[in-house]
Fold:
Amino acid sequence: MKWLLTLVALFAFTASAADINGTWKATAEGPAGAMERTFTFKVDGNKLTGETTSSLVGKSTITDGKIDGDNLSFTITAKFQDQEMKLEYKGKIKPDEIVLTVDVQGQSLEWHAKKVS
Structure:
C-alpha cells in the first residue's frame, strides 16, 4: 500500500510539472539584440497546441506539439520577408521558467519564458 501511495504521489507531481497552460513571455538574445515573443500554450494530455506572437514575424500556430515529462517540442511556421520557414522548438520545463531552443538559419537561439497568466 505504501508503494502505491508513493507511485500515485510521484505521478501527480510529474503530471503537474508539465502543466504549462497559459501565456508565457519569452526573451532571447539575437544577432540584432534582445527579442521578445509571447507563447500561449494549451496542454491536453501529452499534446501541446496554441500560438505564438512576435513583433518580427507576427502570429504563428503551434503544431506537432508534444510534452514528455518536463520536455516539450513543437513546430511553428513563421513568415519573414515574404518567406515561410518551419521552426522546430525544443525545451525544458523548469520550476520558474521554460527554456526553449530553436535553430534559425544555422543560428541557435535560446528563449527564456516566464508565465504571465
Notes: The chain has a mean pLDDT of 86.
